[in-house]
Write a structure and sequence with these properties.
Length: 1174
């Protein structure tokens, strides 16, 4: 090795994840952030001012109709400005703040009230007693404290942009500042309100409870309903289940606000409180107040177990773990000098235990987490003690003295780990899972495998646990197992599953690079004359790209030298030299005498470097680099490859991991026996016993749903068998219309006549399937070059639009080469964000085959892209789905996709979809936005900002989708079901707290008393629970034994596996104001899985979550590629209105508001209305 300057040896770099702090707790009335302690809820009100939820905590009156947290139980001034939590009194008529001591509110003229009158103000600004701290009804009536969810009554505010004079406010609220027009475009004028009261300021929106008002007012005319073959029961608000609201939300627009203001006395308040107590007993739905912080969130308890379906027994890869009866102690560990490597830390502590276990540790065998914590089964004979430890490096074969490193270790008693609370939790007698106790048990069971195998996250890998399989490009797969201790209904459970991941092959670096570049570049040396002569030839292009490609693959990889006999010293690669090896020189003495690397290796080691045209590996840092020729280095075994795999490698890895259920079950059992937990010294020390039998679990097979197709087809209804069916003899229930379309061919191998024939067959299949499809394109098929995609698309589009004049172009069909690189993404970005047209891409291999099955599948995708429906649930159109069919219900799906490992500067993409039809719940509109790198909380669900002209303006994904739902159905959603994908258990609290708050704010921004009940369900696919059955079928649900001890969760295998072992989806209910039973939610989720638009199969996760994932994946194509080799991570959120367009570790920290992310280009309006992402 050549040292340019002396370099200090450092330990292996491995950093711990930062603490994931809670999300943004909430926002005040003006959209300003509040600390978590100040976050309340903004419940809803009926048209007559009655509360939606009787249990609502006191949230004060509302001067300007803005929401307040429960701690601000006073009220708001005429300007409705927010108060900090300490000013829990209220505001004067001018909205000025008061000190906390005057926590009673202010009169109409802004005079302070004593604290005892901390209740708010009547219609004329009169004080109310504290007991009446609930706000005011439509006519200024006081409401009890428990009803304090919204002071201002409304039926139309926020659903539509207002005219120059806005709508008319309701009485009892006085004048109020209105909501400025929508950022994302307003709803149609039919959504205006009408009512009496004082006129609003310019730009306001209706705060009154009625219809009409303003130049855009008028009677509401719902859109013409689409024709269905099955009869639909009319929507009858009076037929709803008992609610806590006296005026159904559907009638909010009809409620009058012209009642005169009446001052209520204490007796009336008592009457209302008595009525409220009656309502509490009869209400089937409850708008629950948001907790003050994520720490106080309590997830819903299981509402009983399901009973629908055929019972059966399945086995699960969970192994019962007996709770130890030991006195566990935690000790803090301080190692000086501090090192970042867990491996070095473990070596230090291993040496300490070896030396001092008998003499100083009371013969205890401690478990160590590799960082700062040590755990023992019983106390050590000291509370604090210091040890001196010397680590001696491994023998590198050089014969030189081995390096010794001295460490000081201080062990100090920190706490006792209470297993009593864990036992209480497992018995369902305690709400919170004692995470520390679970963590200790997990660390104990990981201690022995960590010394035997290569740990990666919660998994362990070894080349001896199964055959290594080559993945290509210098990578290979290693087999391993996942292990995690979990609390379940049967007690503690050890979840074990098989896994595989990519490791770097322990090859000579020259061979690794040869594989990576997929050719033998060593066979032809590249001389200086070659570099000049062949600068533009393909060979030099290959070498000119070597720096980036090889540098990216090798950075951080550990290598050992091979040119010094038995001495195998190890180094970590930091980069490549910019010069070839033969050009590298370095000073050999203080006088500056230079020597070449080639000469040095020949004279010092007698080693003649063969490949002098290659760059050297650089180890150390930029200031003190050391140079190693590639041919003297070999990659050290056991290094996981954490960067992005290419498609060939992914395919090869999937082939390795795909196992039939019997094979997977056998391997899991072999792993358990191999691990021999009964002989594990750490498990014995801590008294943990593992049952080595798979858990037997009771399951149920749910009935398959009937699907509705069009009456003109031979098969009008179908009952799917084994999770799949086909389109033979069926027609789409609502066929879309494609009158005008064009085709562009980017494949050189597809001749024009083949392209024309394919388009003709596709048009015919669409017609057969039930669409109205013009067989003739607007223009003849155009053949174009892939490198001129933008020019070809835009020119052809404008040519077609010129020919069509005022008519719209409905569809673009594109023929792509099989290997098309970035072409697909470019087409989608241009069509959806620039031209405003949906497209259907078809690969060359399918164009030549022209199979009927393929054409039928493509027709399904085209139909939903142009606004049609393929099928609907029979139960949906016959109004038989519990808690969906009885009232207008909107179903959301949300997901966040993060950049691949190694892409350190790319933003994360959030997507939200929402159903746009009711009662069918089949069509989903989607919105997407970019947000900070690896930020999991969806930042754009709700946003508010100050507009210099319009004042306070609000918007966001939820608000726009709610408006879109009302446009398309004629109803305001009266129930929200929110399926959230991609959230790990450690993020449940932050995601729920942040995103439920955003949903509430979005609803309130539309109307101050609009708060439909919300059910928030997390969908998880990245878990390791597997079910094994003799005759495993789709529709299998499990909600016992291996599920959570007390909370509402279940596993559902809604799909029929194509290959391998089916992974059930895990659904965990984090919030439920709709009071779903287990059967109702399980059946709804299972049945929705049969409505997925892109194929005639049931799918593995509920379609709204699936669609959100597709939309987020699509939006990645809209971004300009940004690569960063710096290794830095962006943090921050979308600032202001940026970042929104319609349509593995994750951070739940609320990012700083000033860190901007480049927004995605906006989708065209006609695109975002349809399922463009399918």
């Amino acid at each position: 090795m050549v040292r340019k300057k002396r370099t200090d040896q450092s330990g292996e770099g491995e950093s711990s994840n930062p603490q994931q702090a809670g999300g943004n707790a909430g926002r005040g009335g003006g959209g300003q952030p509040m600390p978590p302690q100040a976050v309340g809820s903004t419940g809803g009100r009926g048209g007559g001012g009655q509360p939606i939820h009787p249990q609502q905590s006191a949230s004060g009156g509302r001067g300007g109709g803005q929401p307040m947290p429960p701690q601000q139980a006073g009220g708001r001034g005429g300007g409705g400005q927010p108060m900090p939590p300490q000013q829990a009194g209220g505001r004067g008529g001018g909205g000025q703040p008061m000190p906390p001591q005057q926590a009673g509110g202010r009169g109409a003229g802004g005079q302070p009230m004593p604290q005892q009158q901390a209740g708010g103000r009547g219609a004329g600004g009169q004080p109310m007693p504290q007991q009446q701290a609930g706000g005011r009804g439509a006519g200024g009536q006081p409401m009890p404290q428990q009803q304090a969810v919204g002071g201002q009554q409304s039926g139309g505010r926020g659903w539509a942009p207002q005219g120059p004079q806005g709508g008319r406010g309701g009485r009892g609220g006085g004048q109020r500042g209105g909501m400025a027009p929508q950022q994302y475009g307003g709803p149609p004028p039919e959504f205006q309100g009408r009512g009496g009261g004082q006129p609003q300021r310019r730009g306001g929106s209706s705060a009154g409870g009625g219809r009409g008002g303003g130049p855009m007012g008028g009677p509401f005319r719902p859109p013409v309903p689409e024709q269905h073959q099955a009869s639909q029961a009319p929507f009858q608000p009076g037929g709803m289940p008992p609610q806590a609201m006296t005026v159904p939300p559907a009638e909010l627009a009809e409620a009058s606000s012209s009642a005169p203001p009446v001052q209520a006395g204490p007796s009336q308040v008592q009457q209302q409180l008595q009525q409220l107590s009656v309502q509490e007993g009869t209400s089937s739905q409850a708008i629950q107040p948001l907790p003050a912080s994520s720490k106080s969130v309590r997830f819903p308890l299981r509402p009983g177990k399901g009973s629908t379906g055929i019972r059966c027994i399945v086995k699960a890869n969970h192994f019962f773990a007996q709770l130890p009866d030991k006195d566990l102690h935690q000790y803090d560990v301080s190692i000086t000098p501090e090192v970042t490597s867990r491996g070095v830390n473990r070596a230090v502590m291993g040496q300490l235990v070896k030396l001092y276990r008998e003499s100083h540790l009371g013969k205890r065998l401690p478990a160590y987490d590799g960082r700062k914590s040590l755990y023992t089964a019983g106390p050590l004979p000291f509370t604090i003690k210091e040890f001196k430890i010397t680590l001696v490096d491994e023998d590198d074969g050089s014969g030189a003295p081995r390096r010794e490193r001295d460490f000081k270790v201080v062990i100090k008693l920190a706490a006792r780990v209470d297993l009593h609370h864990l036992g209480m939790f497992l018995q369902g007698r305690q709400a919170d899972a004692p995470q520390e106790a679970l963590q200790v048990l997990d660390i104990v069971l990981r201690e022995l495998p960590t010394t035997r195998f290569s740990p990666v996250g919660r998994s362990f890998y070894s080349p001896h646990l199964g055959r290594r399989e080559p993945l290509g490009d210098g990578l290979e797969s290693w087999r391993g197992f996942y292990q995690s201790i979990r609390p379940t209904q049967m007690g503690l459970s050890l979840n074990i599953d098989m896994s595989s991941t990519a490791f770097i092959e322990p090859l000579p670096v020259i061979d690794f690079v040869t594989q990576l570049l997929n050719r033998d570049v060593t066979s032809r040396p590249l001389s200086d004359s070659d570099r000049v002569k062949h600068f533009n030839c393909s060979l030099w292009l290959l070498f000119s790209s070597l720096d980036q490609q090889i540098k990216k693959a090798l950075r951080g990889v550990k290598v050992e030298v091979t040119h010094r006999g038995n001495m195998r010293r190890k180094y970590r690669i930091s980069g490549l030299t910019s010069q070839a090896t033969r050009e590298l020189t370095f000073p050999v003495d203080e006088s500056g005498t230079m020597k070449s690397v080639v000469q040095y290796f020949h004279e010092t080691y007698g080693f003649n470097i063969q490949h002098t045209q290659w760059p050297c590996l650089q180890v150390g840092n930029q200031q003190r680099p050391n140079y190693l020729p590639m041919e003297v280095c070999k990659i050290v075994e056991g290094q996981r490859y954490s960067k992005r795999l290419n498609e060939r490698q992914i395919t090869a890895l999937l082939k390795v991991t795909c196992q039939r259920p019997q094979e997977r079950e056998r391997d899991i059992m072999q792993t358990v026996h191999h691990n021999a937990y009964h002989a594990d010294p750490y498990a014995q020390e801590f008294g943990i016993k593992i049952d080595e039998r798979l858990a037997s679990v009771e399951a149920r097979v749910l009935p398959a749903p009937w699907l509705k197709y069009h009456d003109t087809g031979r098969e009008k209804n179908v009952l799917p068998q084994v999770g799949q069916w086909n389109m033979m003899n069926k027609k789409m229930v609502n066929g879309g219309k494609v009158s005008n379309w064009i085709c562009i061919n980017f494949s050189r191998t597809v001749q024009d006549n083949v392209a024309r024939s394919f388009c003709s067959e596709l048009a015919q299949m669409c017609q057969i399937s039930g669409m109205v499809f013009n067989p003739d394109p607007v223009l003849q098929v155009l053949s174009a070059r892939p490198d001129q995609v933008e020019k070809a698309l835009k020119t052809r589009y404008h040519d077609a639009m010129t020919k069509l004049q005022q008519r719209e172009l409905d569809l673009l069909v594109v023929i792509l080469p099989d290997n098309n690189g970035s072409l697909y993404g470019d087409i989608k970005r241009i069509c959806e964000t620039e031209l405003g047209i949906v497209s259907q891409c078809c690969l060359t291999k399918h164009v030549f085959k022209m199979s009927k099955q393929y054409l039928a599948n493509v027709s399904l995708k085209i139909n939903v892209k142009v606004g049609g429906r393929n099928t609907v649930l029979v139960d949906a159109i016959s109004r038989r789905i519990p808690l969906v069919s009885d009232r207008p219900t909107i179903i959301f799906g949300a997901d966040v996709t993060h950049p691949h490992p190694g892409e350190d500067s790319s933003p994360s993409i959030a997507a939200v979809v929402a159903s746009q039809d009711w009662p069918e719940v089949t069509k989903y509109a989607g919105l997407v936005c970019a947000q900070a790198h690896r930020q999991e909380l969806i930042q754009d669900l709700y946003k508010s900002w100050e507009d210099p002209v319009r004042g306070q303006v609000s918007g966001g994904m939820i608000k726009e989708l709610l408006i879109s739902f009302r446009r398309s159905t004629g109803h305001k959603p009266q129930r929200i079901i929110f399926y959230r994908d991609g959230v790990s258990e450690g993020q449940f609290y932050q995601v729920l707290f942040y995103e439920l708050d955003a949903i509430r704010k979005a609803c309130h921004a539309l109307e101050p008393n609009y708060q439909p009940p919300v059910t928030f369900v997390v969908v998880q696919k990245r878990h390791h629970t597997r079910l094994f059955a003799n005759n495993h079928r789709d529709r299998t649900v499990v909600d016992s034994k291996i599920c959570h001890p007390t909370e509402f969760d279940f596993y559902l295998c809604s799909h029929a596996g194509i290959q391998g072992t089916s992974r059930p989806a895990h659904y965990h209910v984090l919030w439920d104001e709709n009071n779903f039973t287990a059967d109702d939610l399980q059946s709804l989720t299972n049945n929705l899985c049969y409505t997925y638009a892109r194929c005639t199969r049931s799918v593995s996760i509920v379609p709204p979550a699936y669609y959100a994932h597709l939309a987020a994946f699509r939006a990645r194509f809209y971004m300009e590629p940004e690569t960063s080799d710096s290794g830095s991570m962006m943090s921050g959120a979308v600032s202001g209105r940026g970042g929104m367009s319609a349509a593995g570790g994750r951070s739940t920290r609320a990012p700083p508001p000033n860190a901007a992310v480049r927004p995605l280009p906006a989708l065209k309006e006609n695109v975002k209305k349809v399922m463009f992402y399918c």
